[in-house]
Amino acid sequence: MERATLTIDLSALVANWRALDAKSAGETGAVVKADAYGLGVPPVAKALQKAGVRTFFVALASEGVILRKVLGAGPRIFVFSGYMKGSEAAFAGHNLIPLLNSAEQVSRFIADGAKACGLQLDTGMNRLGMEAAELAGIALHIPALAPQLVMSHLACADDPVHPMNAAQLAAFHSMTLALPAPKSIAATGGILLGPPYHFNLTRPGIGLYGGEPFSEARPVVRLSLPVIQTRTVLPGEGVGYGMTWIAKRPSTIATAAAGYADGLIRAMGGKAVLYAGETPCPVVGRISMDLITVDVTELPEVPPELEILNATQTVDVLAGAAGTIGYEILTSLGGRYTRRYTGGA
Ligand SMILES: *Cc1c(COP(=O)(O)O)cnc(C)c1O
Known about the structure:
Elements: E1 5-9, H1 10-23, E2 27-28, E3 30-31, H2 33-37, H3 41-51, E4 55-58, H4 61-71, E5 76-79, H5 88-94, E6 97-100, H6 103-111, E7 118-120, H7 132-137, H8 142-145, E8 150-151, H9 163-176, E9 183-184, H10 188-192, E10 201-202, E11 221-233, E12 238-239, E13 245-246, E14 251-256, E15 273-276, E16 279-282, E17 292-295, E18 305-309, H11 315-322, H12 326-332, E19 338-342
Parallel strand pairs: 1-19, 2-10, 3-4, 4-5, 5-6, 6-7, 7-8, 8-9
Antiparallel strand pairs: 1-11, 11-14, 11-18, 12-13, 14-17, 15-16
Bound molecules: pyridoxal-5'-phosphate.
């Protein structure tokens, strides 16, 4: 095996969607933006569609075009960035639904005679969506727009005791009270906050892919790196760029085939481990672009491959070593891996 192998367990993905669906009061959609958080839209979206997902979300219209080819005509595809200039043809041609996020988008949408839409409201995150005054300004048009969804997004849903959650929920209620449309405010974190946050439709992303804050999630990814060579390093000798690690004992060092160009970001050097079966082996020295060096002295035998993501070192554990979040580990996973899908039908 020349390249590292990223194994994606589609049955774990589907089990995670079912578990979040069981917690959601209404319909449960699926967020597959950024190529399904780096795991590959075609197999991921097909597996979710087969499991019963009828509503998908992407960030960009161009992602929606790709997704529509994968899904066929049936499911709804909402686009978070809304009706962006230059993307108009994608909406009409591929039956995508923009989540209109400003009065300016609403005006262009109406002027173009475009059809299906949703509305995106800002309830305090100050990122995307119309605030109360802007919504009031377009209120006249809402009956004709007949939005399929009115949605907002929570800023602090991963922290159940954060006062922003209740504040945004109250703002969402008051802004949508008079709006005759299905409603949605919960992503993964919002589902876990409980039924008051569920409304008609939930929008989980990270929880499907095995990440926090859905701590009951089944791990979805496994990443194994082939060992290219091993060598003995004597006490006092260093390893890697900058010689940041110096052997204190005669050591066996394995060099594995992936690096920061593959999303194994440099900051995890010195903190992450690679697994030989159940045995953790420390990364030593700096992670380079295509290679990682690992101290395998304790192993009776060096296996042909070492794992950097598995059921023990999950995306969140690895993120902790790198000072980031599981979302960034997943969406950074590079294009050089052989992607292998298991558990699909
Ligand atoms: C990315 C995103 C989601 C999914 O969030 P997760 O935390 O991954 O579940 C839902 N809604 C919006 C608006 C998003 O941008």
